[in-house]
């Protein structure tokens, strides 16, 4: 047979592409918590064999976005209020350390970080006043992810990205937890102001208050 102009297919890249698509469907709310996923149906819809789909699902199980239950199948992870409390505690711990690193960084790094965070804060108010709550959640997560990224620690960033993914799993629940518009803006602005003034104590207070408010809202909404 005549040689064709073909490129080798990387099995891992196929499963990675499938995993990325399923991940996006989970994080944007298309796939809901506890919703089952069918390996055969996904393979049929994508026009691929079940092998790379199985690999993709296993990758997402390892990330914590899916859970495999013996004799039942694979489901989107259902995050409980207790899970969210643990996730936020871990996020706060990592962000506190990242804030310390940013405050100790060179002036240009700190100034750039402050500008980036301020730009995000400036978008939160209009989004919330317009009732675009999903955008508010995304901006909030982007704010905190940007703070962590500014630390320059790639391992902390990788650990934090998992926590952000787990937070996004419960995006519908997160809407109910969010404080009032004024409170949300004030808390984020306080974090930015503390960084801008290189005030480590003020940064710690602002971060602690922000997470305390979130966890208090969580406890209040889920109280019997």
Automatic annotation (TrEMBL):
It holds the Pfam family FCD. GO terms for molecular function: DNA binding; DNA-binding transcription factor activity. SMART domains: FCD, HTH_GNTR. Residues 12-79 form the HTH gntR-type domain. The keyword rRNA-binding does not apply. Transmembrane segments: none annotated. This is GntR family transcriptional regulator.
